[in-house]
């Protein structure tokens, strides 16, 4: 089955139809294929336009009817080319939107995964235990400070007399 008939008949893998729609990667691939097909058609039409213009010049005033027919075909090809340009713009916009949506989905999934990991890390922590631990640490730091001050004070062994 050709790419064009697959595109218009909705041909695709059975797995994507069973899930309720294509994956973002499948949709992006199909959009890129369509872009390529339309780009090739653009090139074809551009060459046809050039040929018709050359034919119109060749016939010039000698065969006016053939020249007019060539210009009419050229005009038709230009109209088709314009339609393809619009279609390509729409497809590019859709592809970019799909890529952004897929990126946002992945970011959201990863953020959920990180949230679950944080929850798992914090499940063994109790705020009351943490508060008690912080109070113990503060008390021990105060004791260490008192010891440090006591050691650092100069001892006045002969200065004080006990009467």
From TrEMBL:
<dbReference type="GO" id="GO:0032511">
    <property type="term" value="P:late endosome to vacuole transport via multivesicular body sorting pathway"/>
</dbReference>
<dbReference type="InterPro" id="IPR005024">
    <property type="entry name" value="Snf7_fam"/>
</dbReference>
<dbReference type="GO" id="GO:0009898">
    <property type="term" value="C:cytoplasmic side of plasma membrane"/>
</dbReference>
<dbReference type="GO" id="GO:0006900">
    <property type="term" value="P:vesicle budding from membrane"/>
</dbReference>
<keyword id="KW-0472">Membrane</keyword>
<comment type="similarity">
    <text>Belongs to the SNF7 family.</text>
</comment>
<feature type="region of interest" description="Disordered">
    <location>
        <begin position="1"/>
        <end position="26"/>
    </location>
</feature>
<dbReference type="GO" id="GO:0015031">
    <property type="term" value="P:protein transport"/>
</dbReference>
<dbReference type="GO" id="GO:0031902">
    <property type="term" value="C:late endosome membrane"/>
</dbReference>
<dbReference type="GO" id="GO:0005771">
    <property type="term" value="C:multivesicular body"/>
</dbReference>
<keyword id="KW-0653">Protein transport</keyword>
<dbReference type="GO" id="GO:0005829">
    <property type="term" value="C:cytosol"/>
</dbReference>
<dbReference type="Pfam" id="PF03357">
    <property type="entry name" value="Snf7"/>
</dbReference>
<dbReference type="GO" id="GO:0000815">
    <property type="term" value="C:ESCRT III complex"/>
</dbReference>
<protein>
    <submittedName>
        <fullName>CHM4C protein</fullName>
    </submittedName>
</protein>
<feature type="compositionally biased region" description="Gly residues">
    <location>
        <begin position="9"/>
        <end position="21"/>
    </location>
</feature>
<keyword id="KW-0963">Cytoplasm</keyword>
<keyword id="KW-0175">Coiled coil</keyword>
<keyword id="KW-0813">Transport</keyword>
<keyword id="KW-0967">Endosome</keyword>
